[in-house]
Amino acid sequence: MSRTDIEREPETEVSTGEALLVEPSRLSPTRRAVTTVLRSRELSIFLVLVAVVVLATTKNNGFLFSSDGWRNFLLNPSILLLLAVGQAVVIITRNVDLSVGSTMALTAYLTGRLFVDQPNLPIIVVILACLALGAVLGLVNGVLVAYGNVPALVITLGTLYVYRGIMLTWAGSDRINAGDMPRDFLSLGTQTVLGVPVLTIVALVVLALVGYYLHTARGGRELYAIGSDPDAAVLYGLPVRRRLLAAFVLSGALAGLAGVLYTARYGTVSSSVGSGIELQAVAAAVIGGIAIFGGSGTVWGAAIGAFLLVTINRALPSLGIEDFWQRAVVGVLILGAIVLDRVLARRQARKLAESRDHA
Amino acid sequence: MKIQKRRPTALAALLLTATFAFAGCGSDDGGDGGSADGGSGGGDLSITMLPKNLGNAYFDTSTDGAERAADELSAEFEEVGPDTASPDAQVSYINTVAQQGKDALILSANDPDALCDAIDEARSADVKVVTFDADTNPDCRDLFINQATAEGIAAKQLELISEQIGGEGEIAILSASANATNQNAWIEMMETELADNPDYAGIELVDTVYGDDEDQKSFDQTEALLQNHPDLKGIISPTTVGIAAAARYLSDSEYKGKVALTGLGTPNQMREYVDNGTVTAFALWNPGDLGYLATYAAAALVNGDISGEEGDSFDAGDLGSFEVGADGVVLLGEPFTFDKDNIADFDF
Hints:
The structure holds two protein chains of two kinds. Chain A is an all-alpha fold. Helices cover 74% and strands 1% of the residues of chain A. Chain A is built from 17 helices and two strands. In chain A, strand 1 and strand 2 (196-197) form a beta hairpin. The two termini of chain A are 21 Å apart. Chain B has two domains: 11-148 and 286-333, Rossmann fold (3-Layer(aba) Sandwich), CATH 3.40.50.2300; 150-284, Rossmann fold. Chain B contains ten helices and 15 strands. Chain B has helices spanning 11-22, 57-72, 87-100, 116-124, 150-165, 181-196, 215-228, 240-251, 267-275, 287-302, and strands at residues 35-36, 46-50, 76-80, 104-107, 128-132, 143-146, 169-175, 203-210, 232-237, 260-263, 281-284, 313-315, 321-323, 329-331, 336-339. In chain B, strand 7 (169-175), helix 6 (181-196) and strand 8 (203-210) form a beta-alpha-beta unit. In chain B, helix 2 packs across helix 10, helix 3 (87-100) packs parallel to helix 4 (116-124) and helix 7 packs across helix 8. Chain B is elongated. The relative contact order of chain B is 0.15. Classes of the chains: A mainly alpha, B alpha/beta. The A-B interface holds A 60, 62-63, 66-69, 72, 76, 168-170, 172-175, 177-179, 187, 189-190, 262, 266-273, 313-314, 317-318, 323 and B 1, 24-30, 56, 178, 209-210, 214-216, 219-221, 223-224, 226-228, 230, 241, 244-245, 248, 251-255, 268-269, 271-273, 275.
């Protein structure tokens, strides 16, 4: 460690890592940024993702270097990415939203229904309608959690079934088929701009907006504060209920958007759409370094987690690994992420305690 | 729409579940309950049709066929049915038919056992009972109109794929779930046929994958198949969900038109892909013919032309002559092929 990197002369030698933890302003901004990235959970997950892609590509060139392969690499995770971003925001507040799969199903069916009943409806209107429906369903969760003081796990487990029940009653055995929808809309599902699929661009824009907000805006930081210690947040006078409502509405709206994207991509909607995808969204967030007890992690991590989950599912068959083992691999990843999370949290607590004793 | 095993053994049950799945009639359809009157003739013969549920496009098609047959026979025809496909919902309709003293009841059973008491009662009131699409226990009905046999389904799919890939090359199967009874039986028959039939000597089955009858998983499995087998020439998907998902994937991939796809599908699901050239032809039975044949069979029973014994034969209008097989089963024939020329005629 060279001294020039440290702007202020330290009283005692501390490692960069410790400095970052205890007093980040000791380090120069560049050094700080580099160290933050190097020590981040996101980077390790990203490296795993790169390893998976490299491995699969060496085995089969087409995994990345064919027009379909490249497109699918970017396109397939975009739906889960949206859900994972919404989920991440909710988990950061020490809650969870299990209803996103059912919300996505309802909006996917709404998309199809609107096109069947009003074939001339502009696509943007359909997207807005789905965003609105998703937001309303999210608001229901938010109101119940924020005002009912019932754990989100229970509330959203309930709405998972309620929303799915509404879906079953509404759709029944009816299916929306590709032929029922306008070609323009379906081609959205596969169109690319400069080699990047439109759906991926949508997902990345959402990711950037949410990520920026969480990182810099007051409201975003308050979400972390709420998740770190909900009681303290109340005592401190943070608008906890309002923030929780906003988090659930965002999660619902993103699930709504995911529903539209799902329909554009898969072209078929039946009443079982999205069953179980809520757990994948939670898994993506957890693997991406979002602590399940809230208060830490970034949506960037959740997004990489979503990419990793989907890419692993794509890669394992290429690597000749049986279907049955693929789930096990995902399970191992989740367990690994949680263990790592606990280990890091303990080490951090110990280091903080040591630095305090030191001072 | 899961294909599940409902009874362990009999072939009849196997086909029953197949249809249950293909018809997409496993759940609530939101149609109207009560009675939907069909056309009626003024003849002596009165027939009631009881599908699994109303408002189901598959059964609407079979009822159209039955109505056409009833017109030809100048029989009085009525369709009744519950709005959900649950066994107890059909019981009251069967009782009503018995009380009305109708000559024949044509039904697609929601349960192989639960309806038997009601059917027995109807039969003791001299109502002839013909099941179609989904059978009850063979003891409780007079005849069952079977849409297709497992052998027929397996053979048809191989015939289609062989035609489409020019009789040579690698093929793969995209199935429902790994423990789906029907699909596994068909796949096994296809494997045997591929090995034994010299016509298929140039065809190699390289992989069987499972989409679990989920759109997304079937879609992703199609992608994996194409990625892992660069020389793949064709895909067979003997499940309606699978074939539609595979078609959707193929239709906007670089493999469109290069990799053939066939299997079992419904015209409404496949129309888009047949129109845009992704799929040349696929198979299923024609529910209209099924209803038509069931009506002729019922009429033959009522008129005393047949008694439902094995070897009895009767005439079924446009479809020609049919013979009753073992266990009172009448086979409609080999699966029906849908392609660009005829798909517009169907709506189910």
